[in-house]
Specification:
The protein is an all-beta fold and 261 residues long. The protein has a single domain (7-255), classed as Elongation Factor Tu (Ef-tu), domain 3 (Beta Barrel), CATH 2.40.30. It has one helix and 15 strands. Strands 1, 2, 3, 4, 5, 6, 7, 10, 13 and 15 form a ten-stranded antiparallel β-sheet that branches. Strands 8, 9, 11, 12 and 14 form a five-stranded antiparallel β-sheet that branches. It is globular, with a radius of gyration of 20 Å. The protein starts with 10 loop residues before the first strand and ends in a 6-residue tail after the last strand.
Length: 261
């Protein structure tokens, strides 16, 4: 039986920010542009299989202006001062959209994109609104959330997540891509996050290790080879510069290959 999800649970992580509190809509448009190989005398068009892929993401939201750092948007609780620094920039933004909420194992849309359009509208009879478009690079991947965005005060691993269709004997071939979002930190000197995989859930091996972080950051890492059935996110090191340190982070992963039999 089909399982449906209400859009109110959607979460959007853009770079090192949780944009969910400011957005009212999120969408992804992925397509393939197949080459036209129709020859003279043909009655119908013929296309070559494959072609170049393209992906864009669009977001609509509400204007919110706060009083935190204008130049960096550090620990920002508003959207405008963040977006003002993005348009025309050289940094691609690691983007993770969670259409069914933040439960570990939930569906995740992963892409890497540049801000291609940004608008503010102020209708006389309504609230001030914003919109944002991202032009993706390196395609679009459908994956799973390995760890929901939350604060950690010590090292540890999340629960195991197995993609539908994988088996302990198989897993998937062809590698994949991992996303890390660190949205906030307090009294942290350095932190290291890993993605691990396992055949049975009892013995875990490192699949990829993100670059050690010293503050809020975004990271996107591609992996190769066979990905075992079960996966998890692990905070392997957390060094505090003072007592009471914490780190807010989330991890998602998308398998790119086929099931191994």
């Amino acid at each position: 039986m089909a399982t449906f999800a209400h859009s109110k649970g959607t979460r959007v992580l853009l770079g090192r920010y949780d944009m969910s509190p400011f957005l009212t809509e999120a969408s992804i448009d992925a397509k393939i542009d197949p080459p036209d190989v129709t020859a003279l005398g043909s009655s119908h068009k013929t296309y070559l299989a494959g072609g170049l892929g393209d992906v864009t993401a669009s977001f609509s939201g509400l204007y919110s202006f706060g009083t935190t750092d204008d130049s960096t948007g550090s620990n920002s609780t508003h959207i405008i001062q963040v977006l003002d620094t993005w348009i025309g920039g050289a940094t691609r933004f690691v983007t993770t959209i969670l259409p069914s909420g933040q439960t570990a194992g939930a569906r995740a849309w992963l892409m890497d994109g540049d801000v291609s359009a940004y608008a503010i509208s102020a209708p006389v009879s309504d609230v001030v609104k914003t919109s944002l478009d991202l032009q993706g690079s390196d395609g679009y991947d459908g994956g799973r959330l390995l760890r929901a965005l939350a604060a950690s005060t010590s090292t540890g691993s999340g629960s195991a997540v197995a993609s539908i269709g994988t088996t302990a004997a198989g897993g998937t071939t062809g590698g994949g891509v991992a996303h890390l979002h660190i949205t906030a930190e307090r009294n942290i000197t350095t932190a290291t996050v890993k993605v691990q995989h396992s055949t049975s859930g009892s013995t875990w091996a490192d699949l990829t290790t993100f670059t050690a972080a010293t503050g809020p950051t975004q990271q996107r890492v591609s992996t190769t080879g066979t990905i075992k059935e079960q996966m998890r996110a692990t905070l392997s090191t957390l060094t505090e510069g003072a007592t009471g340190g914490s780190l807010s982070w989330a991890v998602a992963y998308a398998r790119r290959g086929k099931f191994k039999t």
